[in-house]
Design goal:
- There is one protein chain.
- About 25% of the residues lie in helices and about 50% in strands.
- It is α+β, with helices and mostly antiparallel strands.
- It has one domain.
- A five-stranded antiparallel sheet has the order 1-7-6-5-4.
- The radius of gyration is 17 Å and the shape is globular.
- It starts with a helix and ends with a strand.
Amino acid sequence: MKALLVALMIGLASVAGAGELNCSSSERFGAKVIKVGDSERRVIEARPDREVRLETAQGGTAGYRFDFYKYGRTVQVYVQHGVVVRVCRVRE
């Protein structure tokens, strides 16, 4: 019974770590640092690899997510009303 429980715990730990989301207040992109509260212009000047429009349930624009691809992870910068509200890292 203990062996089954240990195997289950190891399996769940390996699945949970695959797409781990880690949010913080800032991220460095070369010489630029983007932090919560910065303007959307500062994010665009850092040259994101992808831009995704976020929508409300009714189909209106809720903001934008800018993706920056780095080795082994993706940094997602969320912008609402022209201001950075969240910076997250997703491990690949």
